[in-house]
Amino acid sequence: MNKAYKNVLISKRELKSICKRLGRQISQDYKNKRLLIVCVLKSSALFTADLMRNIKCECKIDYMSVSSYDGTKSSGNIEFKKDIDINPEGYDILLIDDIIDTGTTLEYLKSVLGKKCPSSIKICCLLDKPYSRKTNINADYIGKIIPDKYVYGYGLDYDEKYRNLPFIATLDDNGEGR
Ligand code: IMP
Ligand code: MG
Questions:
Q1: Which of 6, 67, 111, 126 is surrounded by the most beta carbons within 10 Å?
Q2: Dihedral (CA of 64, 70, 73, 79) sign
């Protein structure tokens, strides 16, 4: 599948090793805690699934859903779509997202979850684009810092397409990725 895409940024093999590294670190940090993983739909579904397979301590999982992107630009307007079902009181939340860009989405989600009185909240992001941050939010666990380009694949979409690709690719300056 890679061959058809000219701008592969993170290969399937590198994604696997990122999940392994982060999983090992999280398993260590949460071994004596009550871990509740919160996956931000839709784009972190693949990453969360692969990461969870590398988390060896006991955990529960729940899902939240928001949308904030309009084409390839962060709109800044967050539409809340789905809340978690589990009451997180007494749990250590690990909020898992695909990418942190302006930080607006994660700041919002962290504040929504914070009002539910969990014991702690940490953030794990597969990708970090630190160039256009508008908030003080940073991830506690980061898979990889990437250039300031629009990326897709491995859960991330371009116009709702390409989420199924097993690697991450970038759009070039002409808006083309393959
Ligand atoms: P933020 O609120 O600007 O930090 O944007 C966060 C959300 O926008 C992420 O959770 C992604 O779903 C989406 N996003 C940001 N950059 C990209 C990208 O390059 N490709 C696909 N989605 C992106
Ligand atoms: Mg997202």
A1: 126
A2: negative
31 Cα to the center of ligand 1, angstroms = 30
* Ligand with the closest atom to the CA of 65: 2
Is the pLDDT confidence value at 75 over 90?
A: no
Judge contact between 61 and 37, C-beta under 8 A.
yes
Nearest C-alpha to atom 20 of ligand 1 is from which residue?
151
Ligand 1 pocket mutation, candidates 63, 68, 75, 133, criterion most atoms within 8 A of CB: 68
Verdict on whether the full-model pTM lies above 0.90 = yes
CA of 43 to the centre of ligand 2 (A): 5
